[in-house]
Amino acid sequence: MTLDDLAAVIAERAKADPESSWTAKLLAKGPEKCAEKFGEEAVEAIIEAVKNDKARLTSEAADVLFHLLVMLQSRGVALSDVMAELARRQGTSGIAEKAARK
């Protein structure tokens, strides 16, 4: 499954009954809850990275990607827009890109 596929599944599940879909239930709680859940998953991934548990890090990283896409869905941000932003930054030094934000 690609991230595009997953984003499409999330968009479809957003239309489902919150009683029948975890994704719909989370989205029904609003963007702030989606952001909170994304943050929780990111922290869990960080913990597994520090512990050097590759299997758990892999699992938590999958959760992070899923919840990132849910958070984007909750605010109407398309994955294609994020990918376009990454493409725009391609070939630019990370140091130069960060300096340009100021």
TrEMBL record:
Q: In which pathway does it act?
A: Amino-acid biosynthesis; L-histidine biosynthesis; L-histidine from 5-phospho-alpha-D-ribose 1-diphosphate: step 2/9
User: Which GO cellular component terms are attached?
Assistant: cytoplasm
The cellular location(s) given in this protein's UniProt record come to: Cytoplasm
Q: According to the UniProt entry, what is the EC number of this protein? A: 3.6.1.31
Q: Which SUPFAM superfamilies is this protein grouped with?
A: all-alpha NTP pyrophosphatases
Protein keywords:
Amino-acid biosynthesis, ATP-binding, Cytoplasm, Histidine biosynthesis, Hydrolase, Nucleotide-binding
Q: Catalysed reaction per UniProt?
A: 1-(5-phospho-beta-D-ribosyl)-ATP + H2O = 1-(5-phospho-beta-D-ribosyl)-5'-AMP + diphosphate + H(+)
Q: Name a biological process GO annotation.
A: L-histidine biosynthetic process
Per the record, the major location class is cytoplasm
In alphabetical order, the GO MF annotations are: ATP binding; phosphoribosyl-ATP diphosphatase activity
Record family assignment:
Belongs to the PRA-PH family.
Q: Which HAMAP family match?
A: HisE
Q: Matching PANTHER family, A to Z?
A: HISTIDINE BIOSYNTHESIS BIFUNCTIONAL PROTEIN, HISTIDINE BIOSYNTHESIS BIFUNCTIONAL PROTEIN HISIE
Q: What is this protein called?
A: Phosphoribosyl-ATP pyrophosphatase
Instruction: Please give the organism.
Output: Thalassobius vesicularis
Q: Corresponding gene?
A: hisE
